[in-house]
Amino acid sequence: METRPDHNWVRSTEFTAPSGRIVRPGTEVSIIGVSGRFRFQEHVLNPSNGAEWISVCGGRKDERSLRCFAPERIKRVHYKEKLR
């Protein structure tokens, strides 16, 4: 039986951003070097190699996609929602 590569990943729907704010699913964030706003989905940690990332959905106004970024790339956690 083959094991899935993500069998030991730790997934969390709540994350503390580098700014100190608590981020939950649906919270809008801006990412350094990328245009548009994204909605936070989950934080993932791979304990075997220490890799971590956040999964987000969004982008420019007419471009929506699911993407992953290093948590350090969070530029801003927004208070007001702009995405529809």
Please explain how this structure is put together:
- The protein has one domain (10-77).
- Helices cover 0% and strands 46% of the residues.
- The mean pLDDT is 88.
- It is mainly β and 84 residues long.
- The protein starts with 9 loop residues before the first strand and ends in a 7-residue tail after the last strand.
Number of helices: 0
Overall domain count: 1
Order of helices and strands: EEEEEEEE
Distance between the termini: 43 Å
The biggest beta sheet reads: 6 strands, antiparallel
The gyration radius over C-alpha positions equals: 14 Å
Tell me what portion of residues adopts beta-strand conformation. Answer: over 45%
Name the helicity range.
under 10%
Q: How many strands appear in the DSSP assignment?
A: 8
List keywords for this structure.
84 residues, 6-stranded antiparallel sheet, two-stranded antiparallel sheet
Summarize this structure briefly.
With 84 residues, the chain is mainly β. Helix content is 0%, strand content 46%.
Write the layout of secondary structure elements.
Blueprint lengths: L9 E3 L2 E2 L5 E2 L4 E4 L5 E10 L4 E9 L5 E5 L4 E4 L7
Antiparallel strand pairs: 1-5, 2-3, 4-5, 4-8, 5-6, 6-7
